[in-house]
Structures are given as C-alpha cells and as structure tokens.
C-alpha cells in the first residue's frame, strides 16, 4: 500500500500488468500535485496489453484520471481543492493542460 508520499500505478512489465509503488516527486516550479480519485484504462491500453500495440517495457497504463488539487507551487495560481481531469499518462508539467470539471 502506498504512503502519502508514494503513488501506485499499473505498469506493463514483460507483457503483463503489474502494480508498482513509486516515490511521489515534489512540485517543481509551475507544477501542482493532484490526488487521483479515479483513473481509467482505455482501449489503447487494452491494445498494448494484448500485444496489438507496441509500447516499451515499463510503460505506465491509464491516462485518463479525475482528482483534486492538493498543493500548488508558489509559481502557480492557488487551485487547492479544485476538481480537475488529467489526460496524460506521464507527469503533467504544465498546469494549463488540466481542465476544471
């Protein structure tokens, strides 16, 4: 089980889906921390797992998520508590890529 400074994600390893826990990085300038309340696996992820789409070993699956803003860097607008959706599987570096629900 992940601690408050860790996150768990579904990862493709040797053609299988495994859950991995990783340290949660601190916010860099212009970034926000989003607590994920719900995430989805979409059709492209299913194609990856079934082998119909090639992705490198270690690819994080699930790139559609909904959550709320936990913390903001000093360089961002204070959005703590706001609901947001995230449409990327890797760390979003630009808070403008998030949209309020």
Using brief descriptors, characterize the structure shown:
Quinone Oxidoreductase, Chain A, domain 1, 8% helix, disordered C terminus, mainly beta, elongated, two-stranded antiparallel ribbon, four-stranded antiparallel β-sheet, 101 residues
Give an account of the 3D structure.
The protein is mostly beta strands and 101 residues long. It has a single domain, classed as Medium-chain alcohol dehydrogenases, catalytic domain (Quinone Oxidoreductase, Chain A, domain 1, Alpha-Beta Complex), CATH 3.90.180.10. The protein is 8% helix and 40% strand. The strands form 2 sheets. It has a 4-stranded antiparallel β-sheet, with no helix packed on it. It has a two-stranded antiparallel ribbon with strand order 1-2. Strand 1 and strand 2 form a beta hairpin.
């Amino acid at each position: 089980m992940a601690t408050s400074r860790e996150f768990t994600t579904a990862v493709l390893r040797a053609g299988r889906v495994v859950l991995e826990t990783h340290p949660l990085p601190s916010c860099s300038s212009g970034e926000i921390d989003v607590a994920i309340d719900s995430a989805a696996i979409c059709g492209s992820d299913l194609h990856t797992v079934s082998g119909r789409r090639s992705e490198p070993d270690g690819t994080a699956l699930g790139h559609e998520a909904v959550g709320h803003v936990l913390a903001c860097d000093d360089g961002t607008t204070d959005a703590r508590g706001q609901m947001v959706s995230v449409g990327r599987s890797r760390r979003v570096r630009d808070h403008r890529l998030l949209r309020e629900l």
